[in-house]
Amino acid sequence: MTSIGIFGSMGRMGQAIAAVAPSLGAQVAGGADVGDNPADLARKADVLVDFSAPAALEAHLAAARAAWTPIVIGTTGIGAHHHALIDDAAAEIPILQTGNTSVGIGLLARLVREAAARLGPDWDIEIVEMHHRNKADAPSGTALMLGNAAAHGIGTTLAEAGVSDRAGLTGPRADGTIGMASLRGGSVVGDHSVIFATAGERIELIHRADDRAIFARGAVQAALWLKGQQPGRYTMDQVLGI
Fold it and tell me: Do 79 and 127 fall within a single domain?
C-alpha cells in the first residue's frame, strides 16, 4: 500500500486527505507542520502531498529531493520564484503541481481552453471566484488555472492578458483581456465561473464545490499516479487522462 506524507497535515486539506486516503488504497505515513523537520517525513513516505504555505515550499522541495520522494503540490499563492524551484527539482524527482485537484475543475479547464479558442476575439472572457472568508490568497489558484487555460485558448498568456484590479474610472474594457474577480465570505468551499460574453449573448461555465473531500480524493489519486512516474513536471490533465 502506498504511503502518503502530508505537509500541512493540520490544515483543512491535510485533514481531508488523511480522512479519504484509506478508502482509496493509500495509508498516511505521517504529517509535518510548522516547526517539524520536513526531511523526517520525506524519508518515510512513498509520496508527499503539500497543501501548506508558499513560504514552506522551498524547504519541502529540498526535503523531497534529498529523499528522492515524489511530491504533489497543491499549495496556492505561489509565484514565479516557486515555479522556478519546482522546475529545478523536477529534473530529479517527479512533481505534480496544480491549482486544483478536483476532477470537475480539470474538465472545466479543458472546456475553457477549447471555448476560448473556438469563440474568437469577439467574445470577452471574465472569471469570478468565491471562497470562504479565511482564504489568504486572491485570485485563487483555481482561478489562475482557469485564466491560464483561457489565455492558452486565445494564444496569449495570463501575465499579458489578465486584469484583476478594476477600480475608479477605468474606461472601456480592453480587447483581448481576461478579467478576474475575487469574492470572500462565509464558509464557501469554492465557486468558479468563467463567462464568455459578446453582443447579444453570453455563455457561462460554472463549477461549485460543496465538499472539500472532492479535492482530497483528487490529491490522493494524483499521489498514487505520481509514484510510478519518471522525474519531470506533471499536471492533473495527465492523471485524469483528459
Answer: no
Q: What is the CATH number of the domain that holds 153?
A: 3.30.360.10
Report the catalytic residues. Answer: 131, 135
Q: Does 114 share its domain with 188?
A: yes
The parent domain of residue 53 ranges over 2-101+213-240
What does each of the 242 residues of the chain score in pLDDT, given as a tens digit? 999 999 999 998 999 999 999 999 999 999 999 999 999 999 999 999 999 999 999 999 999 999 999 999 999 889 899 999 999 999 999 999 998 899 899 899 999 999 999 999 999 999 999 999 999 889 998 999 999 999 999 999 999 999 998 889 889 999 999 999 999 999 999 999 999 999 999 999 999 999 889 999 999 999 999 998 999 999 988 998 87
Question: Which residue in 142, 115, 111 sits closest to 127, CA to CA?
Answer: 142
Note whether 107 and 170 are same-domain residues: yes
Three-state secondary-structure class, residue 241: coil
Strand partners, 90: none
| DSSP labels, 112-167 | HHHHHHHH-TTSEEEEEEEE-TT---SS-HHHHHHHHHHHHHTTS-HHHHEE----
Task: Tell me, yes or no, if the pTM score tops 0.90.
Answer: no
Closest CA to 145 of 207, 204, 86: 207
Cα 180–Cα 194–Cα 241 angle in degrees, nearest 5: 115
Do 177 and 223 belong to one domain? Answer: no
